[in-house]
Amino acid sequence: LFKFFEYIYIKKFKLIFVVSESIGNWYKKTYNIKKPIVIYNTPKFDKFKKNNMFRNKFSISKKKIIFLYQGGLTFNRGIEECLDVFKKLEKKNVVLVLMGYGKLKEKILIYQKKYSNIFYHPAVSMDKIMKYTSSADIGLSLIKNSSLSYNFSMPNKLFEYLLSGLPVVVSNLFEMKKFVKKYKCGWVVKPQQIRIKKIVQNINKGKLKKVKINLKKISKLYNWQSQEK
After folding, report:
1. Which of 12, 157, 169 is nearest to 72 (CA)?
2. Which of 72, 96, 206, 207 maximizes the CB count within 10 A of its CB?
3. CB 96: neighbour CB atoms within 10 A?
4. Residues of the chain with confidence (pLDDT) below 70
5. One-character DSSP codes across 83-137
6. With contact defined as beta carbons under 8 Å apart, do 201 and 178 qualify?
7. Residues 6+ apart with CB under 8 A from 216
């Protein structure tokens, strides 16, 4: 029923915009319309400004690599898999920070009490989020392929990570996989415990340094200053 109404009314709009190329192509093909304009949901960019907000708040050693998940703490985002992976890596040089709000908050707080390398941080306002993001080392976007919308998604958190100077670990969804491989800005993985654990264990400071070189190009192309035009 919704699709029928969409088919009728979408032809009456003067302007349509979507948040990824694949979504635009889907609408063009499905409803036989001109391809919608793609506008990526990117933040404003100034400069990479590294800080130590998470290290200071949680007393995290400089030797540790901080993996960050930010956004809705809900299902199908790879959060539960990450919790189980990092609890097994408690004695390694990796920590997990989860920042946001949602149904999984209480579960995360339980893990934080039990494991010394898992931390919860409440959601922060949009004008502060980039400062917090830049205090991590790697951004996580492990959305599961539970719908076509997810498979074609280009989440705003992906760009928040990259424009804050963080390489990313993303799930092998169509659009994110294509983007990360094109710009060599991180690692692609199936959002399963065994796959995530392997990636996390293999990342070190040297590999991070090599990937970070590619982020400057992305920051010039995919910032709100360019998308706004």
Report:
1. 157
2. 96
3. 26
4. none
5. HHHHHHTTTSSEEEEEEEESTTHHHHHHHHHH-TTEEEEE---TTTHHHHHTTSS
6. no
7. none
